[in-house]
Amino acid sequence: MARFAVVVEYIGTNYAGSQIQPDEVTIQSELEKALSTLISGGKNPPRIKSIFSGRTDAGVHSKGQVVHFDCEKPIVASRFLNSINGLLPKDISVKSINQVDESFHAQLSARYRVYQYKIVNRNQRSVWDGHSLLVREPLVLERMNKSLSYLIGEHDFTSFKSAKASSPAKDCIVYKAKCTKDGDSITVEIAANRFLYNMVRTIVGTMLMIEHNKLEPEFMKKVLEAKDRRTAGPTINPDGLTLVEVGYEPYKLQ
User: Fold this and answer.
1) Hey, which residues does 181 pair with through a beta bridge?
2) Could you give the CA distance from residue 127 to residue 240 in angstroms, rounded to a whole number?
3) Average confidence (pLDDT) over 114-122
4) Residues with catalytic roles
5) What is the C-alpha separation between 214 and 52, in angstroms, rounded?
6) In the chain, how long is the greatest CA-to-CA distance?
7) What domains does the chain contain, in order, with CATH numbers?
8) 208: helix, coil or strand?
9) What is the pLDDT of residues 2-27, one digit of tens each?
């Protein structure tokens, strides 16, 4: 039995998240259906189980989701990629495949994840905005970066965790939290060892709340230290959020 790791890209708009759910169409259900058809064959092929590096919420996208699966048959990378992408829906694709050691685990072996949230800061929307959040009020990059700076390091992120989360996890190490601007497009990038349910969307929502209400950037620190979801801003639209990278070596501070 050999283990393979694939990098999966997807537009999450039409899916109920990445993880398999009863009676829902998800990224995992579509990927496993394609894998089972390709590898096992037949009308009702046995399921090829896949393990994702982490779950993404409904409507969230990916450029770098890592998934592993086990297979008894040999796989030729170029042939596999052509075949699997022919079976997958147009909004899901497999970018690469590599055989890995059987000890590799897409989720447990991961050392960090990187998410980006896209904001367009202008008065009017454009049909070319793509998957981003339109914010009409002027945003000040320096203030937003100051707000995000309070999140760097190891903290209890309960304030930014969905009250509906089933996992008791609360502590994360944030390696990077920074905004960059290119014209009227703003990218918020956050790298951490792990993320809690709705964490990135709530952090960005809190950052925007601080800007909209002209609060001091230090308010982000107060929210963090409160360890109370009620103190944070809204959990904003998932359409601007993309998982861009999963790393399996220690994060290199930039």
Assistant:
1) 186
2) 15
3) 97
4) 57
5) 40
6) 62
7) 2-100 (3.30.70.580), 112-247 (3.30.70.660)
8) helix
9) 999 999 999 999 999 999 999 999 99
Other residues' Cβ atoms within 10 Å of the Cβ of residue 128: 7
DSSP SS3 for 53: coil
From CA 226, how far away is CA 157, in angstroms rounded?
9
Q: Are 31 and 88 in contact (CB under 8 A)?
A: yes
Q: Closest Cα to residue 133, out of 144, 117, 149?
A: 117
Q: Which residue has the tokens 């998934």?
A: 67
Token pair 């147009």 is found at: 90
For residue 207, the SS3 value is: helix
**Cβ neighbour number for residue 206 with a 10 Å cutoff:** 26
165 or 94, which is more confident: 94
Q: What are 192-247's pLDDT values in tens digits?
A: 999 999 999 999 999 999 999 999 999 999 999 999 999 999 999 999 999 999 99
Residue 156: DSSP 8-state: E
Tokens of 253: 């501070």
Per-residue pLDDT of 132-143, as tens digits, reads 999 999 999 999
pLDDT at 246: 98
Name the packing angle between helices 219-226 and 141-149 (round to 10°). 30
Residues 6 or more apart whose CB falls under 8 angstroms from that of 254 comprise: 176
pLDDT at residue 99, as a whole number:
95
Residue closest to 240 by CA, chosen among 188, 183, 194: 188
Q: Model's pTM, two decimal places?
A: 0.95
CA 112 – CA 192 distance, rounded (Å): 5
State which amino acid sits at residue 138.
P
